């Protein structure tokens, strides 16, 4: 429970650690949601992210641009939903063996990243089209919501696999 609560806090803090990149805001949320899946496993990692989402929707300003129930109408909210699904997938893949190797951890991270972007881009497309009534084309969607943002997240996947390789055995042995 303590590790789960710690990851809720880390994800919230990660939303405010911003690296200035043109057009797309780059935060460390994905790193912490990915690590939640890697280190806590699929179910507990997803639980940590879901608690974070509930706190944000309840009004705590833990999302990158605030909080509150109205945040579901932000085009970027799909990425937040994707964080929960991505943490689950990452945790299930990584922890399907006792001591996962670097390649398994990296594959788990990339699978989780694909889930996050799938949720984020589909949600962005439908909110832009249906709610904002300002549809975005597929090429601009791909450019702004994937191509410009994914290089930094690929680096986070590599970093997450390196951290996971060192931390998972400690957690499994009960030393953390």
List keywords for this structure.
176 residues, mainly alpha, Arp2/3 complex 21 kDa subunit ARPC3, two-stranded antiparallel sheet, 2% strand, globular
Question: Could you walk me through the main structural features you see in this protein, from its secondary elements to its overall organization?
Answer:
The chain has 176 residues and is an all-alpha fold. It has one domain: Orthogonal Bundle (Arp2/3 complex 21 kDa subunit ARPC3). It has helices at 2-14, 29-40, 42-57, 77-94, 102-131, 138-147, 150-172; strands at 18-19, 26-27. Strands 1-2 form a two-stranded antiparallel sheet. A hairpin with a 6-residue loop joins strand 1 (18-19) and strand 2 (26-27). It starts with a helix and ends with a helix.
Quick structural gist:
With 176 residues, the chain is mostly helical. It is 69% helix and 2% strand. It has one domain (2-17, 24-172): Arp2/3 complex 21 kDa subunit ARPC3, CATH 1.10.1760.20.
> Strand portion, in percent?
under 5%
Structural class: mainly alpha
**Please, what is the average pLDDT?**
92
Helix content: 55-70%
Number of helices: 7
Taken in chain order, the helices and strands follow as HEEHHHHHH
Report the span from N to C terminus: 12 Å
Order of neighbouring strands in the sheet with most strands: 1-2
What is the radius of gyration? 16 Å
Largest beta-sheet characterization: 2 strands, antiparallel
How are the secondary structure elements laid out?
Elements: H1 2-14, E1 18-19, E2 26-27, H2 29-40, H3 42-57, H4 77-94, H5 102-131, H6 138-147, H7 150-172
Antiparallel strand pairs: 1-2
Helix pairs in contact: 1-2, 1-3, 2-3, 2-4, 2-7, 3-4, 4-5, 5-6, 5-7
